[in-house]
## 1
Amino acid sequence: MQVAKKYFTEGLIQLTILLSLIGVRVDIDSYLSGYYSPLIEINLGPSSAYTQTPFHNLRDTLGGYTVHPKCPELDYFFASRRLLEEVRTLGSPRFPTQLNAWLVHQVSPVDKSDGGQPSTSSSTDTEPDPESYQASDDRNQELQRTSPSGPCVSRVVTEDDDDVVKEEEESAPVTQLALSSTLEQESVLDGTALGESPHHPPPTTDFDQHWSRFLSMPVANLDDLDSLVTDRLSDLDIDSGGGISLDATLLDAMVTGGGAFDTRQQRPLFRQESTGSARSDASPGMALGLAALPFASVCNLSSGGGGGSLQSALGDCLDEAVFDQINQLGLEGLESIDSQLMDSLGSINPDVLEDLDSDSGLSLESSSGGPISPGSSEMSSSSCEDEGGATGYSSEVDSLPSKGLLDGVATWPRESVWHDHSYSSPAAFNPPTKGIKEEPLSEDDEPSLSRDELRARAMRIPFSVPQIVHMPVEEFLEIVDGRGLSAEQVTLLRDIRRRGKNKLAAQNCRKRKLDAITGLQDEVDRLRARRERLLRDKQVTAKTMGAVGQQIRQLTRDVLARLRDESGRPLSPERFTLRCGADGGVVVEPVSAPNGDKTDKRKKSKKQ
DNA sequence: ATATCCTGTCATTAT
DNA sequence: ATATAATGACAGGAT
């Protein structure tokens, strides 16, 4: 029964992988709870395969951040870019990390057989060999002592800056963790890859050699734990970048999945790894605890090789999906905008239409007659205002045939789209009902005139308001200084130009204000998310440190128990401790005074 | 009837 | 000195 269950588990895992590829979550915790350590699901954020965040959820939130409904500045354009960037920052799809851990167990023998870099994890994988266990009675005792009830070790999966920190806690027995992690620390902290360590112990290294290495480990006194971790956090961050590669693991799993579990089923599940294989910029201190170091080599081993094709394929599919989403988003908005624009402006000369875009785009929705959704109207207004704003109008006007625009047919329809909130404006969008001193509108497509339009007409000014506002200053001065206009007309011309430019300036100003508000809101969201992430990192690090401290204490006791004093008795942990020297050596020294005193002295000397 | 939003306009300052 | 941009403040219309 156990064998059948084992094979079924293998198949289930592979099925889970395949389903994960298509975004289907398969919860096998319940099944595996009695077979392996239970999976603990935590909300891992958008990159988690568990959370199932569809891309279309980002459509309205621009990558998680809510967008102000009035957000201007080419919203849909930049939104698409931002969305694409957000998605790309997610990197390759991610899958349940615990599952990857099993795969690491599976591929490790392959790595060894392939002549890959030996790792302590791999070596420890082989140590369950009964012969190895029975090679030494002392060794067997040690393993029995450390195996059954290991401390609770945190398991950390880290992703980069704005993404999610995956944190899982599993209570797993720690088999030989103290030994292996200690040995790994030696090489990692020395800045050398584990597999490249020339003095790396073979899997069947004599047990005393392990202890001799432990004695050379620069960690022996728990009082140094905090400072040690602080000093080594940067190293950990670097190592975290070499996390397990998803594609490689999956590929290897599909190839070597069968049978590997046979020799692993008795082994407790204890691994720390990072699925962010491409994330070398993981958040500081959170990527891996010290206990994770022994397994970095495994991750590195499995990260190389022929998984690139699969990952690239996945990346291509992902990009295509994203582009489809973005294209749909953009095209939908464009379609709605274009249809509205063409409905209201279809009869206008293209030149004038272009000029209209540069003008008060916000008024388009009024002239179109029908209500427009805020987003659509904002998109149109934003794109228009950017070109028609105070910063860009002159060049555009330069392109206008100003003389030719004296034709009222070409220019006055543009006036019809101007919003008129003037104090004395009697005209509404419907046919005017109040008395206007100017003649009532004779044409149906000329619904309303602004106050300045009416004044200009009343004063017989041969220019439209947009012309007056947008014409180059030289041309305007020529008209004003010319002898063709009366003083009243000149004054009105200057007022119209001033008010028109100020209106545009006000529109730009308000748009910028909304942009600033939106940007600040986004910044608040980002900072809040970062704060939460850092808090989670802090918790993970604290738990990891606690676990490592426990391991080191246990190792210290073990070492002292194997040492003998002059009378041949084991050294008592209450009377002796291990201390790391400056040269990397570890010495046994008696506990002469409370540790706090020494710590204080060291801290004082450090400060000095 | 009231609140809120939007828009145009004015006044002021800066460029 | 002049034109223009930027912006706060206000008023009036629209919802």
## 2
Amino acid sequence: RNVLKTPLKQAATSHSVLTEIQPDCQPLTPPPKPKEILPADPWTPTSNLKMLISAASPEIRSREQRRELSNTTSEVLQAKYCLQEHLSGDEYEKSQPSRKEKSLGLLCHKFLARYPDYPSTAENNYICLDEVAEELNVERRRIYDIVNVLESLHMVSRLAKNRYAWHGRHNLAKTLQALKKVGEENKYTQQIQMIKKREYEHEFDFDGERNEEMARSFGSNEHSEMSFVELPGMEFRAASVNSRKDKSLRVMSQKFVMLFLVSTPQIVSLEVAAKILIGEDQLEDLDKSKFKTKIRRLYDIANVLSSLQLIKKVHVTEERGRKPAFKWTGPEVLPNIQDTKLETTSTICPPTISESIPSKEQCSKNLFPSQGKQNFTRHPSLIKLVKSIENDRRKIQSAPTSPVKISATDTDQNLSAFPSKMAQLPVIAKHQLEGQSKKAKEMKMELSSSALECHLSSPEVVPKPEPPRTAAPSQQPALTQPLGVCPPSHSPVSPVILPHTHSGVSYAIYLHPSQAHTVTTYSPSFMLQPLPCADVTGIKSINSNILNKITTEEGDNQIATADPTESLPANERPTVKSETSSQRCLKRSQALQENNLIKRYRSDEESVDTSLTFFPSGYLIPLTQCTHGNKAGFSNKEKAGICSLQHATYSSPIAGVIPVTASELKAVNIPAFQITPLNIMLSPTSVAAAPVLSNSCLNSSNTSSAQNPSSSVLSFTLQHVGLIPAGVQVPANPVLRHMPVSSQPENVSHSTENKNLQEKVSKNILQLLDHDGSPSVPREPQEPQTVTENFFRTPGGPNTVSSLSASSHGTDRISEGALYIPQRKLEVSED
DNA sequence: TGATCCCGCCAACGT
DNA sequence: ACGTTGGCGGGATCA
């Protein structure tokens, strides 16, 4: 509305640049904030183009960003200006914000860049929509698009009016798991088959039979459209949102994701997706317009998912021609096992609410009407309850209306603000690492270095003993604070912190070496290969036809990077450690601080979600350790370091991370098709059966790669428990390691599973420990945890937990028992 | 052209 | 009544 986009953009650009880049400079955001039309990117026009072109290449972007960030604000600004002004004419044209520059995907990237993948604690990470919109120079409407899909993944949750909480990827695994399950329940696989079949046979003609088939396939859920899938912990939050008929985006996004998770070659064409999504709502009437609209939405969603690097655009070539499709590049999702979920669940849920929360299973079931049940998310009563809770929470928090953003005053805001700017560096680094991490070691190196720099630079920030965030609305410097460098000593404030605490970090390190191999091994390039996918599903031939060629648009440029040779696990490993030691301190200290902050928060606030720490892995860990969990600031460094060694280390630096890594790698690199079958076979059952489990080492045996995680996990756990000193790592059985069990890609899958198992086990252990309620443990006894545990029990196989708890008493034995038992649970619990 | 998908109207909701 | 959310689809861009 303001003006013509084109003409204005220049100004906008420059302006935006200012905004984004210079945190300090911005004394105040001018209240009137004229939103400039164009979203100016911090990047140079040139870079923009490049970026745009290689839509996905996060590296570049990150690099750019990094660079810019590193640069003095002034410099950057100047540069921008120069560019802008000089470019006045033709040159500028090119740089002009083309449509692409306004793309949702790009916007989403920017958005994501502001927040850490694994925020230390939810507290800091508040998102003020207005703020974000302003800073990114976009209309709020667009932010909604992003947030909505993020919400569908539980990466954010709505807190209040203009407010969202950023969870990052902590819940991602669980969410995906849940989604997968639901998808399976809905028989999405079959639906997909049907549609494909139909397509092949002919275009959409309405064969009565076809339709019937379709109907049948849909049959179970029929008109049912599942409502928003919630995670146990997340529910309430969602509740607030739930009010409105969450129709599309949110739900649609989930469904879309489900399709990926369910389908064997994890590739979904827009067409199919659209049809299925439509189909659910109303069988048939492929209204053209409707279809079109659906596809539009799917693009929106896909863009965001792409930014999250969960999917990637590809083309499926058939007889007819090539159709746009997307390939899942996100983490592998384990075969759904309820057990897992249960465990997971505990982790997720915010303590407060947890009690009211039905078991996670129930939730999922209720949520998903897959079986033709109703589809309401939760009982109204619950909702009310939730709402009330939320309200309280909100009260506590600020209830600012949208326009608020201006003042840095607000603690929350500060917090939120902080991440965006200060945190960016790390974030960026993270991104790079995560995405196709391998790209260049160089990059990693750079990142790491940059990260270091960041820390160094940041020192200004003094870790003052912060008053509870509420109390201290330090207005000005607020931005900086969050990063606050940690005093070398453990956090002064929180007594809670354990000395070992840092151990978490070390764990991560330990793990890497072994994993490095694994990581190294995989090469992303595979994607390129046109693989005829074998359909696991019933319908055979058809599929093969359908998915003849799969071409990656981008061609995974980065892939080349991944040379197995490059990564030298052995060499690097030591390096890492060494570096770690020095850095570690910092990190730790930081972490500690963060903890403190968090704790304070909690105390201040209601302690709501904060208290729980979530690890990607799903480990339930005492706050102390939680510290590590946040990759946010410093962790990145670690990552960077690690990454250099191994290609991708995504998740948290901690032990929990490790397993994830393996899986993720797998997911990314290996063509899904191949992997899938194996996984299935291996899945929980087999595991359970295996006696191996009792032994931590044994687990690894199955998978070559797997071992590491297991051992690491074990050590991690033990350490936490206090059974073993922090530095010590439980040795993985070397012999087993070497076991050449599977040399092929399958390994990966195995590893994944193992990983999962291990995770579970570890979780169990942790839980057990918790259960014994060893107050002795330094960790804080936080309510949340407690709640969690309870929660845990309830939902989960009732037996399982109890059994565990019973056994849990002798530390050592317990651990063993835990290992063992849990497995069983898995089996049993699984329906 | 078809594939993408930006833009923003305007209705559903919340307060 | 007004602000927040966000469905929806025209039509501009891109390839």
